[in-house]
Design brief:
14% strand; Arc Repressor Mutant, subunit A; 2 domains; globular; Rossmann fold; single chain
């Protein structure tokens, strides 16, 4: 038998392909790209500060001129404002007029200020919030495990601002109408449950609009639930209640056929036991009930996400938050980009037979699932 026909030789591992020759031009292009990313990272951090301190809002309202004038109008320390303005001018966010006068163009203010149709500065806070747990994540890379919710300072505050734009702004005009007849049922009086409710903004808004319906919100975070309860009392709402609850056993503890409408907004993929949560929703939903799930618009396959406009950002959020908080609960660690394919499979396994997926023009980041038994 010749060596070429030896079946043992043929079954061995294939030889490694030869290494591609080093391309100096490719290395230089990548270095340029990485330097641009460093500048972009600085822009995000400065934008988060501009949002939180109100500098963007003050400049949009007319504060312009020297750093002293801008600081005075914003009620802030001049030295810090001066350095912030320099960074924003270098990034092309504010315009430098002459040598020491600054202005925020109206076109930039339109996407960086509170009250704008889409305040992108809200999302800049995500990176600084996640960066605060870098030491925890290094430990996880080395030892496994996860990072609990309580390590993420301001997480619920930032998510509430996000929700105000993606959910609250269109809740009644675009999201509720995804379910035909739902607005009439809410007005007549039904039982509604929101899981992973955070600070409860969506439920509070629905409860105020539909006093005949009854609303319940569950979340793992005590601080978020305390905020929601305080806000309900402040608004005088008696048809909504909030409870700190771990949903890891929701498939067994969910009250059977108790709710007409169940919602989750960007919550399933970071649950410790997402399959149990979905089975619990199927259990607690009445026969004619509807489950509405907002979750990230993505494929379950990396190669199909390479052209996603937010892929790098969303995988980073997944690695630094959604996956570790699930793993900290001993959970599945689905990650932010669990995707439509896996979502459909898990919904069917939970007992749902009818699944519709909608995209809304205001929200390039999320899908809206309308789900029935």
């Amino acid at each position: 038998m010749s060596r070429s026909s030896n079946p043992l030789r043929a079954a061995g591992p294939a030889p490694a392909p030869p290494a591609a020759p080093f391309d100096p031009a490719r290395a230089e292009a990548f270095a340029d790209r990485f330097l641009a990313a460093l500048n972009a990272g600085g822009l995000l951090l400065m934008s988060a500060l501009g949002h939180r301190t109100g500098l963007f809002d003050a400049m949009a309202a007319g504060a312009r001129g020297t750093s002293e004038q801008v600081a005075r109008a914003a009620g802030l320390d001049e030295r810090y404002v001066r350095e912030w303005l320099a960074a924003m001018a270098a990034a092309g966010v504010v315009e430098l007029e002459g040598t020491d006068r600054y202005a925020l163009p109206a076109e930039h203010a339109a996407v960086l200020t509170r009250g704008a149709e889409s305040d992108l500065a809200v999302y800049a806070q995500t990176m600084s919030t996640l960066g605060a747990v870098e030491d925890d994540l290094v430990r996880c890379f080395r030892e496994g495990g996860g990072v609990p919710y309580e390590r993420y300072a301001r997480f619920h505050e930032v998510m509430a601002e996000d929700s105000a734009q993606t959910v609250l702004a269109v809740l009644h005009d675009a999201i509720v109408p995804l379910v035909p007849g739902l607005a009439d049922r809410l007005a007549a009086g039904i039982d509604v449950l929101d899981l992973g409710c955070g600070r409860g903004l969506a439920l509070l808004d629905l409860a105020a609009r539909h006093p005949a319906s009854r609303f319940t919100g569950y979340d793992l975070g005590p601080d978020a639930i305390a905020f929601a309860r305080d806000e309900a009392r402040r608004r005088g709402l008696r048809n909504v209640r909030f409870e700190v609850r771990d949903l890891g056993d929701f498939d067994a503890t969910a009250p059977p056929a108790a709710f007409d409408f169940v919602t989750t907004f960007d919550a399933i993929h970071d649950q410790g036991a997402p399959d149990a949560v979905l089975r619990g929703i199927a259990r607690t939903l009445r026969p004619d009930g509807v489950y509405l799930m907002q979750d990230v618009l993505a494929s379950s396959h990396v190669h199909e996400n390479l052209n996603h406009p937010l892929a790098t950002f969303l995988y980073a959020v997944s690695c630094c938050h959604c996956m570790p908080v699930s793993l900290a609960q001993g959970g599945a660690g689905l990650g932010t980009m669990w995707g439509r394919e896996r979502a459909r499979a898990m919904l069917r396994a939970a007992g749902f037979g009818r699944i519709e997926i909608h995209e809304l023009p205001h929200d390039v980041q999320n899908d809206y699932y309308v789900i029935r038994h």
